[in-house]
Amino acid sequence: MTRAFWLLLVLCLPAGAHAQSEIPLRRLQLAAGIGIVGGASLGSADANLRSNMSSDPYRLFASSSRLERAAILDLRVAVDLTRRFGIDGHLLYGHPELRIDVSGDVESASPVTALDRLDQYVIDGGVVIALHELTAGGWQPFAAGGAGYLRQLHEGLTLTEEGTVFYVGGGARRAFVTRTRGLLRGLGARGDVRLNVLSGGVRVDDGARRHVSVSGSVFVVF
Amino acid sequence: MKRALTLMLLAVMAAASPAHAYLHLTLSIGSSQRPLKWNSTRVGWFATDRGASGVSATQFQVSIARAFATWEGVPTASITFQFIGFTSNVPFEDDGISTLGFAAEPELDRVLGATSFVVDTLTGELVESDVFFNSIFPWSTSGDAGRFDLQSVATHEIGHFVGLGHSALGETEMRPEGRRVLASGAVMFPISLGRGSIQDRELQPDDIAGISGLYPDGGFAETTGAISGRIVRDGAGVLGAHVVAFNPRTGALIGGFSLGEGGAFQIAGLQPGPYVIRVEPLDDADIDSFFEPEGIDLDFQVTIHPRLAVAPPGGASDRVDVAVRPK
Questions:
Q1: What is the reported pLDDT for B34?
Q2: Which chain B residues are closer than 8 Å to A43 by Cβ?
Q3: Cα-only R_g, chain B
Q4: CATH architecture of B224-323
Q5: Three-state SS for A135?
Q6: Residue B182 forms contact with A (CB below 8 Å)
């Protein structure tokens, strides 16, 4: 499938295209890729009863929650407004596992990891800063930052949890082919690394959670 | 209107509803189970004009009013209460008024208090409910060590007064003198925390879910969800298992029982979110504190379900089947 996609793009780029050129300004870039989003601890919580023996709670069992690492599908829309600054919008989809480790049961129930699967969507937007001066081998580094919306659906799609995402990151991109006219103006690839800070969504406490995502994409320029 | 006086000691009832967490008292009418509840959202009550050792009639009325206010203060429940006045009547008489007061019952030497009902046997509507506090015990209104806290016990009995049964959220240990409560997760746990404790003045999530399920208000039905399923051992339903739902985010523990056909259970009144499900035999209090003991199964291990159960707002989870193993 991926090979067919590349072939199609190459066929669409007619003669007159330039190899390894800069990405045209103020042109729409569409990117699609895959990657991985790292796991994140969601916090710990004890199942407590009111103790009749002391002021400390009486622990029925302990629990520790975590969102596991997962593959992601990455879709992106970007425009370079100037040689230095651009904007992009981004949709991420993942299917991570929510795991709650239960242990220390007061009546010796076997420790268990209780599971649920989430459908996780992030829609965000931000600013991209091109770092031309660090370009090497045709790969142009960039820094990025922004914010967006987090939507998580539990297994069975009976419950939606929402939150916000803030991110900082960067990466590198390279246009393999560009042209000055026609519908398709370029073809390239990019890699992104982001530190995401999640607020809301599935969680145990109200603290923000951090996790890293890494993705690689191909893009076309219109 | 058919009326029947039902003497209820520690909430022993012939049947209990499987359709809710905690335990709603029910009445069998024909082939159906109707919850015992007040149809009026404002229920009047009288206090007896006699105190007991260490507690005057006025102190008694003030403590009882505080206990009623605790239940009335639940924002997701609609029931309210009104003190009408003092009365020379005594509790447990079918006199048309709901009376709370002290009475000496030496033969009930393990009973701090009890609640009785007069019910409309056609509808399950509560017509009258009385509460007695056993004056053979030492009482206090200020949490004195060595005395039972009247407000704590009254909060428990008023839970019955509104139609709640007992919760099994608690841990006990057997001692020569009887069960000792190590901890509890509900005011409606059937055994007192003991002398000097005032902890049961404050409701816990299980109690709040219970009264809110009976008298829902403030969007309770729309904003909370349920988890339902079955408890099975070797493919057969387990009757009377205590099922507890734990919300790691809120820390809330809400319990229910597998009293339905094939070991079915439902725990309602849950804040939306993922829950850990824990199942245990009903061995921390006498079974007849909750319901008729016939057929109740205790021969299985405490089990934590390896799947999270998700309570959606205004609905119920996918069916959760928890497999338990024999001891």
A1: 83
A2: 248
A3: 19
A4: Sandwich (2.60)
A5: coil
A6: yes
